[in-house]
Amino acid sequence: MLKLGFITRNLGYSSEVWMYRQLIGISKFSTKVLTWNYFNQDQFPFSNTTTISQISKPLSNIRAFRFFQKKWHFLNNFTKPTPFWQEITKWLDHIMPDILLCQFGPVGIELLPFALERNIPTVCHFHGRDLSAMLKTDAKYKKELLQHLDKFAAIVVVGSHQKQWMKEQGISPEKVHLIPCGVPVDEFEYVERKPKQKTTFVAISRLVEKKGLEYTIKAFDLARNNIEARLDIIGDGPLKNKITDIAQKSKYSSNIHLIGELPPDKVKEILYQADIFVQHSIISSDGDTEGSPVSIAEAAAAGLPVISTWHAGIPDLVKNNITGFLVKEKDYNDMADKMILLASDPETRKIMGVAAREHMLSKFNTPDQVDKLENVLINVCK
């Protein structure tokens, strides 16, 4: 069986459950994981995992180091030899993988020189920030990425907008593969939701700028003037205090509930109890954008209609007027109108929810996505 080196800076984030699903779904390779940090190991167990030590170690061969540095023109923190350099090379030489799969652009760029030196084909899996904010805020990363993109054996992206960007950089279409992370539809029940007096909207995301939660709350406030409703916000992040403050200042603060981060099984329970999923994603001030939001895919798999924005890979997930509604970024007035419309029409909610689940099953089901990914990896190894 071919050996796959699966490399990521962080494994086990609840907000990146898609990575674990992908990892355990790979069956055509003997997979070994190298990660900088491994969180929530009880929730996301994977035995063949090596965690890089956080202790810096001196390089044993300075002459080789300087040659290596000059050869690959290391320009930034992602591409110059890090304190983990020896551990990375030791792991590669011990595992001797047939192929590497690197999660996120910075990791791909960092591992590429080591892999090329050992003739190991490398596939880089891009997601969101690595093809948006980092291209605007980190000139060195952008330069290095553009210089070495064509050296990857294959490139995986999660949204059609990212595939278009690769085309614009002159990367061969045959090398770029659109494979959203998707959702394991069979792990989510379809719940027949009966009309009730108070509609439950739910937003599940990290509390960061690009998720647009302040616009979601503004839209909820406007909608709440016309309907009985509550808004549940699931997640944690650096903007927790800001979002809490906005919610507390809302006219309907008693109907807005910040629940915090929850494990995957609890997230499912929240989705089954909700009526409508909302996510007002925007381009953040540093240029950060979505890739293909898994929370939207999960909501759709649970049979929820989705109200979101014309943003990044979201139009791939949400078929406007069929599985939900899309509005322009920061247009919370239009979002409020769509919230009122769906809250007032249980039959449309049901029709859209059924269509949303079917859309996930036909286009975004995780087992199918993993199978596509494995085929890419196998073809690269040929």
Residue-averaged pLDDT, rounded? 92
Percent strand equals: 15-25%
Order of helices and strands: EHEEHHEHEHHEHEEHEHEHEHEHEHHH
Please identify the structural class as seen in this structure: alpha/beta
What oligomeric arrangement do these chains adopt? Answer: single chain
Q: Order of strands across the biggest sheet?
A: 3-2-1-4-5-6-7
The main β sheet shows up as: 7 strands, parallel
Q: How far apart are the termini?
A: 13 Å
3D structure, described in words:
With 382 residues, this protein is of the alpha/beta class. It has helices at residues 17-25, 62-72, 85-95, 105-117, 133-137, 139-148, 160-168, 213-224, 240-249, 264-273, 294-301, 314-317, 332-343, 346-363, 366-381; strands spanning 3-11, 30-38, 49-51, 99-103, 122-125, 154-157, 176-178, 199-204, 229-234, 256-260, 276-278, 306-309, 324-327. A 7-stranded parallel β-sheet has the order 3-2-1-4-5-6-7, with helices on both faces. It has a 6-stranded parallel β-sheet with strand order 10-9-8-11-12-13, with helices on both faces. α4 (105-117) links the parallel β4 (99-103) and β5 (122-125). The chain is elongated. The two termini are 13 Å apart. Mean pLDDT is 92; it is low at 54-80.
